[in-house]
Design a protein that fits this description.
The chain has 416 residues and is an alpha/beta fold. Helices cover 51% and strands 9% of the residues. The protein has 18 helices and 9 strands. The protein has helices at 11-21, 44-48, 51-57, 65-69, 73-86, 93-104, 114-122, 126-137, 154-159, 174-178, 180-189, 200-217, 237-253, 283-292, 308-317, 333-347, 363-388, 395-415, and strands spanning 24-26, 139-143, 167-172, 219-226, 257-261, 263-264, 277-278, 298-300, 321-323. Helix 1 runs antiparallel to helix 17 (363-388) and helix 1 (11-21) packs parallel to helix 18. It is globular and about 65 Å long. The protein binds zinc ion (ZN). Zinc ion (ZN) binds at residues 28, 30, 357.
């Protein structure tokens, strides 16, 4: 073990090597254990029809939305490729991501056309390919987003399957909190509750439902994405279910509740899945929640960049809060850099700097590759500042810190 303090001039090289070698835990994705078959998306066409790129391509398309969505997946991919890569330079983060991914896989889209690239992907075996992507991304575990309300996903859980140990589960309960009017009927069909009335029997039925699914999935945490209008306290259905069912269940199971506030669903319904927007959430509501339930653990990532500073300050006040990731619209280098720097400066190492939010397997390659570069840049700057303050660091310490920021701090928080 090398315990020498690194000289100032060696810091950039060592930090970027260590950050690029550190295996990350990817704690929020929309990927699936390969046992889910076609639910696990991967390959060129899925990379190109990613909803981030669909939204961007419509900046240039001159035909109606419905016309695009009536095309097959490969035709949609061709239209997007033409608009975003051929007719314009692919500078946006989501476009660059496709190129970083192809490049890491040894493919050259400047020399190969879509047909020959597709051929290459068609020759891959999905199970081996998952391993290759994780290896290139240096990701050791992937947390899925799993919903018992999803009609494609539920039967797989109910039937049972041999788990791939690299994939962990998170129990996602959006319909329970956001669509009670229709959701209660399902819970009633499944025999958990008798009516939509929010009384003691209903809350205990919901808790039984949560505990059955937590067990079935071996869920690591419960999670929900919330609109910017979420307020606490409140007598809304959403808040009452959180207070009387979700939080008691999480306490009993010893699991964190992950909150993802800021999504405005269907800002432009014509864009379908690509039509969601964002707004600043009310962080004071979350502070009241953390204060009122000190026995509960909360994970939180906010969608609006305007919430990030107050979120870091909240994390200084509440050690039952763990801040994680640069989510969705904040997952661009300029904002990742700002957020990472702010987090390190305000809450040090007790944070998970990034998650991929990948929806297509191959995306872990670029999402982690791009983030690691930014993280290394910010960390280098911080170690240089320490060095100037007379605090030398060793490569061992940098390795410890990088591990902490890419999963270790999350694990310690969950184990608390
Ligand atoms: Zn997500």
């Amino acid at each position: 073990m090398n315990t020498d303090f690194l000289p100032l001039k060696e810091l950039p090289g060592v930090v970027s090597r260590v950050v690029s070698e550190t295996e990350a835990m990817d704690i929020h994705t929309h990927l699936y254990d390969p046992a889910f078959g076609d639910l696990l998306l991967w390959g060129l066409d899925d990379l190109l029809v990613y909803h981030y790129l669909v939204a961007e391509a419509f900046r240039y398309f001159d035909f109606p939305h419905d016309e695009f969505f009536s095309l097959s997946k490969s035709q949609q991919a061709e239209r997007i490729w033409d608009a975003l890569f051929v007719r314009n330079s692919p500078i946006s983060e989501a476009c660059r991501g496709v190129l970083t991914t192809l490049n890491a896989l040894g493919l050259d889209p400047r020399k190969q056309d879509l047909a020959s690239l597709r051929n290459w992907f068609a020759g891959q075996d999905p199970r081996d390919y998952v391993g290759r992507c994780m290896e290139l991304a240096k990701v050791k575990s992937i947390c899925m987003t799993n919903s018992p309300f999803d009609d494609l996903e539920r039967p797989v859980w109910e039937k049972g399957f041999e788990r791939d140990p690299r994939f962990t589960a998170a129990l996602s309960i959006d319909p329970l909190l956001r669509e009670w009017e229709s959701c209660w009927k399902q819970l009633s069909d499944w025999g958990y509750i008798d009516s939509a009335d929010l009384n003691e029997a209903t809350f205990s039925g919901i808790r039984r439902f949560l505990s059955d699914w937590t067990e079935k999935m071996d869920a690591r945490f419960l999670m929900v994405s919330l609109p910017p209008t979420f307020r606490y306290p409140d007598e809304s259905v959403c808040v009452r279910i959180i207070r009387e069912a979700i939080l008691p269940h999480c306490r009993e199971a010893g699991l964190p509740f992950a909150l993802m506030p800021g999504v405005k669903r269907g800002v432009n319904p014509l864009l379908r899945m690509a039509g969601d927007g964002l707004a600043k959430c009310d962080m004071e509501s979350f502070e009241r929640l953390f204060a009122e339930f000190p026995q509960n653990k909360f994970l939180l990532t906010a969608l609006s960049s305007e919430n990030q500073h107050e979120l870091c300050v909240a994390a200084r006040k509440f050690n039952n809060l763990h801040v994680f990731g640069c989510w969705w619209f904040t997952n661009i280098p300029s904002i990742i850099e700002e957020m990472s720097r702010m987090r390190l400066e305000l809450i040090g190492m007790s944070v998970t700097l990034q998650h991929s939010d990948a929806r297509v397997m191959d995306q872990v390659i670029y999402k982690w590759g791009h983030s690691r570069r930014v993280i290394a840049k910010v960390l280098t700057e911080k170690y240089e500042d320490l060095n100037r303050a007379g605090w030398g660091v060793t490569e061992e310490e940098i390795r410890r810190d990088a591990g902490q920021l890419m999963g270790g701090a999350y694990e310690a928080f969950c184990a608390k």
